[in-house]
Amino acid sequence: MPLMALLWCCLSLSWASAARAESLRIATEGAYPPFNYIDAQGNLVGFDVDIGKALCNSMKVHCDFVAVEWGKLLDGLEAGFYDVVVASMADTPERRHQALFSDAYYRSHSSFVGDPSRFADLSPVSLSKMRLAAESSTIQAAYLHSEYPDSVVITPPTQPEVFTALARGEADLVLADSISILMFLKSPEGQQFDFINYPLDTSKLNSTAHIAVGKQHPELVQRINQAINNIRLNGDYDRINRKYFPFSVF
């Protein structure tokens, strides 16, 4: 092979490798509006998706998004099917066995929602035998199992199904992220419900969302943290925040 052709071949392979190295595969749930969901055109959209795109733009990398069931997100990350998860995920000691976590990219709280005329006291004794619902494999579901042992805990696989259970009378109360509840209360199905008391103040319900990173990419955590800081400084974060919420979630 002529020398110039050989050099061109090597350069082409080098550029191709660099392009692959600068491409990230991002997973999200796709069933947790307004944070991540699939719109009428079949596109993955939502706050998490827009934040992921802004972070990729800041890091100057190409990103491909894929929807994965909530309960399978960390298993797929651990298996290397994708590089990061941007899905409103709390950083917990149990999850650290499977993933590394970025700094927080938004904050929220967990609340109960239901018929306010029926509930005021949320103590485990008062809610004994009541049907309490939360999305499966979430910190809210773990909290219900731990703190309400005498209640019937229902754990549908997606957040919309949790709210549907409440609307249909299949659950008495739902424990969920307060922002997600706010979106539900604005829907036709949520008109008869409201927050029950104040958000729960407990360390068991982590109020910050983080980006999960595959353990094989520790260097990526710092790059993502820097990108979170960058989009906070350049106005991208505030622009995305205003698109979805009338208040700051950071």
Automatic annotation (TrEMBL):
UniProt xrefs under InterPro entries:
SBP_3_CS, Solute-binding_3/MltF_N
Signal sequence span per UniProt?
Answer: 1-21
SUPFAM superfamilies, per the entry: Periplasmic binding protein-like II (SSF53850)
Against Pfam families, the record matches this protein to: SBP_bac_3
According to its UniProt record, where is this protein located? Cell envelope
Q: Does the keyword Hydrolase apply?
A: no
Report keywords, A-Z.
Answer: Signal
Solute-binding protein family 3/N-terminal domain location is 23-248
**Iron found in the keyword field:** no
Coiled coil (residue ranges): none
Question: Chief localization class?
Answer: other
Protein family membership = Belongs to the bacterial solute-binding protein 3 family.
Per its record, how is this protein called by name? Solute-binding protein family 3/N-terminal domain-containing protein
